[in-house]
Fold:
Amino acid sequence: MLSYQRLKHHPRALRTFTGLDQTEFEKLLTPFAMAYHAYRYDQHVTKQSRQRRYGGGRKPRLASMEDNLLCILFYFKVYPLQEVMAVLFETSQGRVNEWIHTLSIVLKMALGNAHALPERDPKNLEQTLALCLAVDFIIDGTERRVHRPQDATEQHEKYSGKKKTIP
Structure:
């Protein structure tokens, strides 16, 4: 079974499977665990229509918080089929589907609490950049062709400086 305990001794494999090294993984683990417990409390403990008390039933296959984080980071980094994940984590495809949906929400909550989510609204980008003084940013963009305007001033504004287009 794929587990964090096995991968932490192989830094290259951990980086390949998750995109993080061991220190980054462990730094993300604390907010992830807090978000996981908050999510579980909201979704399961306070639920009024419980058939049995919280903690009853089958024990989860991914027992440790490290394995939960590894599972969702592996999914987002490698994006394998759910059947492949089922074999790697020794469970069923249906269970992997449940993990993906649940742990995606938890990871988003953890990254939001750690202020590590990217800004999606360009109107708020200035504020986000002002909060991150010590971080360098790279914006990856692709130049797209536009129709050449007839007005001379508009042509000047739209001019990119490229002489040829590469097919």
